[in-house]
Specification:
Number of domains: 2
CATH superfamily of the largest domain: RlpA-like domain
CATH architecture of the largest domain: Beta Barrel
Helix content: 25-40%
Order of helices and strands: HEHHHEEEEEEEHEHEEHHHEEEEEHEH
CATH topology of the largest domain: Barwin-like endoglucanases
Structural class: alpha+beta
Oligomer: single chain
Shape: globular
Strand order of the largest sheet: 3-16-13-15-14-17
Number of strands: 17
Radius of gyration: 22 Å
Number of helices: 11
Strand content: 15-25%
Largest sheet: 6 strands, mixed, barrel
CATH class of the largest domain: Mainly Beta
Length: 391
């Protein structure tokens, strides 16, 4: 299962991609609950009090119907629901008329608060950049598929007794030793030339860098063809949020000689300082490999297409993937009902969300500046909510 990778702003600034770890903790913090049940569940407000708009409800209903087959087949890591809790709502959702979407949610679901309910939401989008199916002048940046030699294994220096969990990603060298996979600098320098399939060629290495952080996107050819690509895998190397590095070095801010603390500001620095910018991008050793997408929309972690202003990424330990979520934020455009259909490496903990804004310049602008705070409620089937809040 793979999600779209990046948070357009927060992940770049130091935390999108979806394989990116959260920021390092520099001061003691309280232990984090392992799932929603351990974080605590409390009754939320009545759904009628949330002022669900008709258009919002119709979009959420469509997303919920698409999610149901996967939702019914998955174990809920949050501990909030059982598979059978969703059977009735999913059956009735398939026959619910869009005009009754608000009534459907009111009849089937109960909002609950997980933990303290204090929400933080960012945004992500599907970038559009110039590309070509063939290599030609102006299109020289390879978009690689998964290489055959990228595998999981155990380095020789890891004792057999310590080999627990999934083996790390890497490759076997000429001597048969398992070693780390090639990093961003090595791949950019051509180590995979002739060794990995090239899906397409991008025109701009900087735009492609940020598309890798997002984890999916559209390549627009000079002839107008749209090549949609999605996340296939990653090289297993360390992710470094270059915005965080720039902030530490005093390059971001509002002072003289500093750049705006946004994705746009980071890109401006890289373009205006080519040598330093290239070195900065190489500090992020992670490299993302792609597959061409033939279906509708970029796929989220749930395995269904994510939809603009309807799909949200959440931590599956705290929100059942496929469940409706209500966000009441200080960003009006991000407030309302969403369907949890994606995950993210930086989207960890209760009430942490990443809203999806589609493709295009407006999506890029909204997602790149999205930082909303407020309250969140997870909508659970009524039987599940009653069982939990009765404890």
């Amino acid at each position: 299962m793979r999600a779209l990778l990046a948070l357009a702003l927060v992940m770049v600034l130091g935390a999108c991609g979806r394989t990116v770890p959260p920021p390092a903790v520099t001061s003691p913090v309280a232990p984090v609950a392992a799932n929603a049940v351990l974080a605590g569940v409390a009754p939320g407000p009545a759904l009628a009090a949330l002022n669900l708009a008709d258009a919002d409800a119709r979009g959420a209903l469509a997303g919920f119907v698409e999610s149901c087959p996967r939702l019914l087949a998955r174990e809920d890591a949050s501990g909030l629901t059982r598979r059978e809790d969703w059977q009735g709502p999913c059956e009735r959702a398939r026959s619910a008329a869009p005009s009754r979407a608000r009534a459907f949610f009111a009849e089937e679901f109960t909002p609950v608060q997980v933990g303290d309910g204090q929400a933080f939401a960012t945004g992500y989008f599907e970038p559009e950049i110039a590309g070509s199916r063939t290599r030609r002048a102006g299109f020289e940046v390879p978009v690689y598929a998964m290489p055959a030699d990228l595998v999981r294994g155990w380095p020789d220096d890891v004792n057999p007794s310590e080999r627990t969990g999934r083996p790390p990603l890497g490759r076997y060298d000429a001597q048969g030793r398992f070693v780390l996979y090639h990093d961003r600098a090595e791949i950019e320098d051509g180590v995979l030339d002739g060794k990995a399939q090239v899906i397409a060629w991008a025109a701009d290495s900087i735009e492609f860098f940020f598309l890798q952080i997002q984890g999916s996107g559209r390549l627009i050819t000079p002839e107008g063809e749209v090549i949609r690509i999605g996340y296939a895998g990653q090289n297993g190397r360390e992710y470094t949020g270059i915005g965080g590095v720039m902030r530490e070095r005093g390059l971001l801010g509002s002072g003289p000689g500093q750049y705006a603390g946004s994705m746009q500001g980071i890109m401006a620095y890289i373009r205006e300082n080519p040598a330093q910018g290239r070195a900065l991008m190489r500090e992020n050793k992670s490299w993302v490999f792609f597959t061409e997408l033939k279906g509708d929309g970029p796929l989220g972690a749930l395995g269904v297409p994510v939809r603009r202003e309807s799909s949200v990424a959440a931590d599956p330990a705290f929100v059942p993937l496929g469940a409706p979520v209500w966000l009441d934020l200080d960003r009006r455009e991000a407030s309302g009902m969403w369907i949890a259909q994606d995950t993210g490496g930086a989207i960890k903990g209760a009430n942490r969300f990443d809203t999806f804004w589609g493709a295009g310049e407006d999506a890029r602008s909204i997602a790149g500046g999205m930082s909303g705070r407020g309250r969140a409620y997870v909508l659970l089937p009524k039987d599940a909510a009653a069982r939990l809040t009765a404890r």
